[in-house]
Amino acid sequence: MLVLDITKIGYPPSLYKRVQTIQNEYFNDLRQIENVSEVELLKRNWKIVFGGQYREVDTGYKGKVSQIDLDPTYNFIHQQLLNSSDVKSVLEGDSVRTRQIGTFFENRFKFYDFNLNLGVRREYYDKSREWKTAPRIGISKEIAYTQSRIFAGYGKHFQAPSDVSRYSARTGNPNLKMEESEHAEIGWDQKIGNFWNIKIEGYQNTFSNLSIADPYAMDPFSRNRDLMRESLDPNADLSLVRRSNLNYSNSMTGYSRGVEVFIKKEASAESGLYGWISYTKSITKRNRNLPELTKQEYSSWLAESSAKDLIHQENTDYYYANFYRDGSYDVLFKNSKEELYDFDRTHMFNMVIGWKFDRRHKLV
Questions:
Q1: Which residue has the higher pLDDT, 364 or 215?
Q2: How do residues 237-280 score in pLDDT, each as one tens digit?
């Protein structure tokens, strides 16, 4: 936590002083069973691959105060912060067990120089109690006399939330769904001689249901309360209808698209230069799909809504509608726009070069 303190101006000049730092310590225990089987029906022409996976993860966190300024001037700030319900939830920590089931079935066909992969995967995530179907397709055509390969593919993918603080009942939203993405690609792969290879590939990824910090998502009934812990707290609000902030939602969407050029040089059998160079031009954007309020508008809405009992929240793709016990309601439209993602890199250039001295020694 930073506080404004004009008496502590140093060099370089700074008007803020860090008086308290709270951080989380995470743990993760993964248990996984996986099986993959293959059946060849037509020699070299048709193969079936199928299998399944079971994942069980025990993960959690516990907060700690890693830095605190003992100056008596800040005692009031420390008390206010450390006694707040949000900070207490972080310091007490939480542990969550999640289970995922995955099954897949894939047909691999090969006819002369033509390859076709048709597959499907089913995913289950126990926290959201949802089954999802993910189709996959891949096509490629090899042209032997030019040493070329043309390829294209499409696939849908699902991933459970990975940050426990986001789906913990104490600090986040235990009802977060699986994040979704669709990947499509098309490209050309060219071999030149015995040592050179050039690949050009265009791709597009579309994302939906991405988890994001959301100050508007609320649960009017606080379904995920620790009643045993509350019964021991004389200051706890034990009312059945009591809203809680979920802090996170699956509101964010986005996309990335680009073109990559990849050039690779293999070393000869004895010795020589080897390495690869790649260049990618891309764009990545995200839309938080949240209401865009000014600081004053948000403070006004928060003060007014916090003073009333929330009995229902409607969350659609376009707005939040909050209904209160006194018969009033408010509607917050999700008017955010697409923005460049924090990790957007319009131009990326990578290069690795090495020298092979013999079969056993290389320099990179």
A1: 215
A2: 656 566 788 999 999 999 999 999 999 998 887 778 889 999 99
Q: Is residue 56 part of a domain?
A: no
Give me the mean pLDDT over the 325-352 stretch.
Answer: 93
Contact (Cβ atoms closer than 8 angstroms) between residue 176 and residue 128: yes
How many folded domains does the chain comprise? Answer: 1
Q: Residue 351, class by beta-carbon neighbours within 10 Å (0-12 exposed, 13-18 middle, 19+ buried)?
A: exposed
Residue 203's domain spans which residues? 98-290+336-363
With 0-12 / 13-18 / 19 or more C-beta atoms within 10 angstroms meaning exposed / middle / buried, residue 140 is middle
Phi-psi region of 193 (alpha: psi -120 to 50; beta: other; left: phi over 0): left
Q: Where are the alpha helices (DSSP H) in 67-177?
A: 75-82, 85-92, 164-167
Does residue 139 fall inside a structural domain? yes
Q: CA 126 to CA 132: how far, in whole Å?
A: 12
User: Model's pTM, two decimal places?
Assistant: 0.81
User: Which pLDDT band, with edges at 50, 70 and 90, does 9 fall under?
Assistant: very low
Q: Does any domain span residue 46?
A: no
Q: CATH code at 122?
A: 2.40.170.20
